[in-house]
Amino acid sequence: MSHHPDAASFRAAASRFSTGVTVVTSRGADGAAVGMTANSFTTVSMQPPTVLVSLKRGRTWQAVSETRRYAVNVLAADDVAIGRHFAGTPLAQGTPALDEHDGFLLLPQAIAQFGCAVVNAVEIADHTLFIGEVRWCRHQDGLPLAFYASRFRKGVGAEISPSDALAYPAEGWTI
Ligand SMILES: Cc1cc2nc3c(=O)[nH]c(=O)nc-3n(C[C@H](O)[C@H](O)[C@H](O)COP(=O)(O)O)c2cc1C
C-alpha cells in the first residue's frame, strides 16, 4: 500500500539518509557575506566537475540567485557550532571568520571547499536547485560532521573491509 506522506513521515524517512553538513556561502548584491547550513549538497558529474545544492528562498538564496556564484564548505566534526550558527542559532562570539579566494568565501577549517559557478537553476516548490560547475576546490584531512535522524553526529561509521564489499568493483565507480 502506498499513500501520500504527511510532513512528519516524510521528514522522518528523509532523515534516515545520512549526510555530511556544509555551509554554502555567497555575497549579496550589497557586498555582505552570507551563508547557510545545507545538507542537500551532492555531486552531479565528474566531467565537468559539477555539484548541486537545494536552497530555500532566503538571504543566501537571494545572493546566489544574483551573483550566480557560491562556495560549499564541508564541515569538520568539531564545527557543530558553525553548523548551528549558519542555520540560525548565532555563535556568542559572532560570525565565524571567512577567507576569500577568487571571490569565493571559505571557512578555513572546512575539510573540503568548492567554488562554484551556477550553470543551471531549477525551481522546485519553495526551493531552487543551484547546479554549479566547480571552478576551484581544495580538501584537508579531518573527521566530517554528519547529520542523521535530525541529529548532528561526529565522523563516519566503521569501514567495511574490501573483501566484504567485493560485489562493487571500485573501477566502475564514478566517485
Ligand atoms: C543540518 C541542516 C541542514 C540544512 N540543509 C538545508 C538545505 O539543504 N537547504 C535549505 O534550504 N535549508 C537547509 N537548512 C536550513 C537553513 O540552514 C536555515 O534555514 C538558514 O537559516 C537559512 O539561511 P538564509 O536566511 O541565509 O537563507 C539546514 C539546516 C540544518 C541544521
From TrEMBL:
Coiled coil: none annotated. The keyword Translocase does not apply. Keywords: Oxidoreductase. Residues 14-154 form the Flavin reductase like domain. InterPro entries: Flavin_Rdtase-like_dom, NADH-dep_flavin_reductase, Split_barrel_FMN-bd. Gene3D superfamilies: Electron Transport, Fmn-binding Protein, Chain A. It comes from the Bacteria. Signal peptide: none annotated. It holds the Pfam family Flavin_Reduct. This is Flavin reductase family protein. The lineage of its organism: Bacteria, Pseudomonadati, Pseudomonadota, Alphaproteobacteria, Hyphomicrobiales.
